Amino acid sequence: MDKREKLILSIMKEAEADGEPITREEAEEMADMEIKAKGIKDYAQAKEKKPRKKREVKKDPIKVDFIKFLADLLETNSIENVAIVNEQKEIAFRINGEDYSLSLIKHRKPKENKS
After folding, report:
1. Kind of pairing, strands 90-95 and 98-103?
2. Domain edges within the chain
3. For 4, what's the count of Cα atoms within 13 Å in the CB-facing half-sphere?
4. pLDDT of residue 85 exceeding 80
5. In b/e form, how buried is each residue of 18-32, taking b as 16+ CB within 10 angstroms?
6. Within its chain, how far is the Cα of 33 from the centroid?
7. Given Cys at both, which of 7, 41, 46, 95 links 31, Cβ 3.0 to 4.6 Å?
8. Residue 52, burial from CB neighbour count under 10 angstroms (0-12, 13-18, 19+)
9. What pTM does this model have?
């Protein structure tokens, strides 16, 4: 039973309880006016959410090689605890007992304005 039908039946019961029974047509008209007045919106929702596909990250060979190069460079300069955290993005290391990390960001080409 939809919302409108339930509302029609409840209006008819209320009117009968008040001692003033109304016809179904009158109840339908009252229900329509009440729905419009309340602005009832019925948003349909899926019963089950679709599982998300795991996004496949493409490896950028330039970034991988550059991170390896930087890690090797740090190790040859007596930097402690050099570790590649993410082969395309981050290197962690220690200098004089302090922890540091380097993040590599590849910038996208700027968009061309189509004016």
Report:
1. antiparallel
2. 3-38, 49-115
3. 12
4. yes
5. eeeebeeeebbebbe
6. 37
7. 7
8. exposed
9. 0.51
Residue in the block written with tokens 């948003």: 43
Q: Rounded distance, CA 55 to CA 72, Å? A: 30
Tokens of 104: 């590599």
Question: Which among 109, 72, 108, 68 is positioned nearest to 88, based on CA atoms?
Answer: 68
Would you give the end-to-end CA distance of the chain in angstroms?
54
23-52 tens-digit pLDDT: 889 888 888 888 777 765 666 777 788 888
Other residues' Cβ atoms within 10 Å of the Cβ of residue 12: 19
Per DSSP, the residues of 47-112 read SSPPPPPPPPPPP-HHHHHHHHHHHHHHHHTT-EEEEEEETTTEEEEEETTEEEEEE--PPPPPPP
